Amino acid sequence: MKVIVNGEPRELPEGASVADAVAAVTAAAAGLAAALNDEVVRRSAWEATLLNEADRLEVLTAVQGG
C-alpha cells in the first residue's frame, strides 16, 4: 500500500503499523514523535496503530538548540 511519510510517497506492506513506518525512515530510538493524518499517536500505540492506503504520517525528531 502507498502512504505518505514526511511528505514522500512510500510503499509499505498491508498491515504495516506506525512503528513499522517509523523504523523504515529512521534508526533513532529516542526523541521521536509521530502524527497520523494530523493526529499525534502516542508512542505506546505505535505497534497497534495500523496504516491504511493514502494515510499521511509525519515522523518528527527532537533537536536541541538554543
Written description of the protein model:
This is Sulfur carrier protein ThiS. It comes from Actinomadura darangshiensis. InterPro entries: Beta-grasp_dom_sf, Mopterin_synth/thiamin_S_b, Thi_S, ThiS/MoaD-like. Pfam families: ThiS. It is a single chain. The protein is mainly beta. The protein has a single domain (2-61), classed as Ubiquitin-like (UB roll), CATH 3.10.20. 12% of the residues lie in helices and 33% in strands. The chain contains 1 helix and 5 strands; from the N terminus they run E-E-H-E-E-E. It has one helix at residues 18-25; strands spanning 2-5, 8-11, 32-36, 39-41, 56-61. A 5-stranded mixed beta sheet has the order 2-1-5-3-4, with helices on one face. It is globular. The relative contact order is 0.31. The model has no long low-confidence stretch (mean pLDDT 94).
